[in-house]
Request: fold
Amino acid sequence: MYEVSGRKSGWRRILSASLVSPQDIADRLGIGSSMIEPVTARYPARINPYYLSLIESKGDSLWRQAVPDPAELKDRVFKESDPLSEAGQSPVAGLIHRYPDRVLFMVSDKCAMYCRYCMRKRIVGGGKGAGDVDIGKGLDYISRTPRVREVILSGGDPLMADDAGLDKLLSRISRIEHVEVIRIHTRMPCTLPFRITSDLVRILGAHAPLYVNIQFNHPDELTDEAKKACAMLADAGIPLGCQTVLLAGVNDDIKTMTALMTGLLAARIRPYYIHHPDPVQGTAHFTVPLKKGLEIMDALRGNISGMGVPNYMIDLPGGGGKVPLLPQYVLERTEEKLVVRNFENQIFEYQI
Ligand code: SF4
Reply:
């Protein structure tokens, strides 16, 4: 649909050619601007030329993730913009301390694309919250909280920062003695793989142990460019994981999810989570029954390599935290034995 001029253009230049205004999006995609204007007034849009080039037809899996939809304003099911109470777990603006040994540091409210299902719709692209982040206060909190062993940079997308800014931030975090691990949550290798430059890889590689968790939601996102970006990171010794979001009309079927998980493994990315979508206002049209998620997990287990089977996670409301869900394998339990079914639905007794 849209030609990308290539790596030589530089990621900033590609990003600056993004479709942002409702009129430009409507003209380019052949839809009515009046349909999406009120949507973008509330939830910003950005479709960069690279991701746009992956969309093949109206309403396909990539379109649904990128293109504003009037359904976002018609959501009568999910009432809360922050159902996980992230704001209530922020000791300082932009930093969430939910679990004992790690913090989530939302260092940017910008992304290379504004995903329509985003759990932080309330923030990304200029909403309230992460834009107000005070990096100094966040670093200060981490420094004076010795139980924090891991810092997760998130947002928005932390890789929206320029190289110098990112290097400085990583250096300051690395100097905090009790911080053992840095993790980066990013969609860049998927939504704008040209951001993964050799300079960036050098910077990330210099701050080991540093992990990068990416979000791919559909096998069509695993393009040659995306795989090359991931290979550059993997070659630098950076472990890669994937946190996929289960989304109606995108990946809520066994065939798509199987292709995605096996494709990730082949691209040297370890599937880590399938997130059940959070009940965030404006995203009800992406919701999937839990039963469907469990069916997909059941189909993955045993049929593909165990390395390709992620955990299926729900996030409890009100800040209860993440919990993994498993299909029912134990059918009966007594003092002496378990009655268990395997992935082929054969029944076995297991002595305990
Ligand atoms: S890249 Fe991540 S934070 Fe940004 S809009 Fe997409 S899902 Fe949300």
Notes: The longest strand covers residues 181-186. The radius of gyration is 21 Å. The chain has one domain: 77-330.
